[in-house]
Amino acid sequence: MDMEELHKKPPYGMIAILFFGAFVAFLNNTLLNVALPTIMAEFNVKPAVVQWLTNGYMLVNGILIPASAFFIQRFTNRNLFLTAMSLFTIGTAFAAFAPSFGFLIAGRMIQASGAGMMMPLLMNVMLTAFPVERRGTAMGMFGLVIMAAPAIGPTLSGWVVEHYDWRTLFRIILPFAVITLIFALFKLKNITPTRDIKVNIFSLILSSIGFGSLLYGFSTAGDKGWDVPEVYGTIVIGVIALIIFVVRQLKMEDPMLEFRIYKYPMFALSSVIMVVVSASMFSGMILTPIYVQTIREISPFHAGLLMLPGAILMAIMSPVTGRLFDKYGARILAAIGLTVTVITTYLFSRLTADTGFYHIMFLYTIRMFGMSLVMMPVMTNGLNQLPMSANPHGTAMNNTLQQISGAIGTAVLITIMNKRMEASGAELAEKAAASGNAPATPEALKELSQQAMLDGITHTFLISTYIAAVALVLAMFMKRVTPPKTDKALAKKFKTQTE
User: Fold this and answer.
1) Are 27 and 153 in contact (CB under 8 A)?
2) Torsion of CA 13, 19, 21, 22, to 10 degrees
């Protein structure tokens, strides 16, 4: 299809099918966490083993996303989506009827191998189907899909697990996956350009070891600490593999992942801002449930409800932000969004042991509103500077960085919280002993540990405030950009700038 004709009349029906497929995959990603204790009891497995249902899923995603640039260039969007959706459907069926824990793990891994391709593929189709001046609106709708699934996921799974068997979570997803696959089979057309490129096996192995080891190392660090060989060993292996991978890609004429796109200044700046914002964003998503459930002793279902308005607002704001981006550009939106994020994150650092439920809900919702003005405009502005031939590499790089920075941010912030908690606990016990009021009863010990944890959480929110402030300063350097208009110019510019 001719690009001008495509831009005049984007294939909305086809994009709707891709959206629905991505929504089902993202929803599935957030459903299982609440059900882990039930699964542990049914299959009689330890926490370290059951954790592989989420860690394994994330690892397969982390390995596949960097390779998505190759797949998107090599195969048509129709064949790629049908393959990804088929794998996801097969994996869901495996998990829904799993007779043993091994089958359940296998199902999750197969699901992940399909889901890992969804986001980069959908983003690439959007960048191809819409002209630059309408990309903000299009990416805003894409953001609605990404945000709505995590908004619904935890609350829905909490309700399902309370009333039904955990397998129901997969049985809910399965018919939707099958329907999406049937529609895709009849309605999907090819619009993304393809090239006859060959996969470089050594690059694929290096990428899998590098990104996989880093994700595993940092994800495990939050739970096991940094001094375990399993943690620092995998991080070191990951760093070494990634250094070799990057050097190799820079020397190759047709790399698996094009690192020379960082010669485009706005894309490079958007990547840095996204990494910093992701690290700060995860603090709220992880620390708020810990605070709500452990210190305020609110049930998991009500904790999910507390975070629901923020997630819904973020989803609703996504298309609005997209339209505002098309009109005003990324800098003003990011500046407002990050100012709101800095202020609300600081207010989270002032939480007390009896802060009200609705006060926490209001703060969290406003923080999510701030975040909704940042991620999509910053990402889209960076991608807008890239020529079309570089779009698969840009989307793969952004999605990979979000996964890695999320894992690193989580691990570092959990470590900061634990260290502060230990120091605060020791200090409080010392003060109590000095005043002759050493905690002797279980209630007194529990109160002391809750005070220490509260100190750890508020201190970590303060650190997160500084991280968000760094992103705010960086956002001031953003400029509005557009790539050249014609395909020949795009390809030529990309070639000359990456030689």
Assistant:
1) yes
2) 160
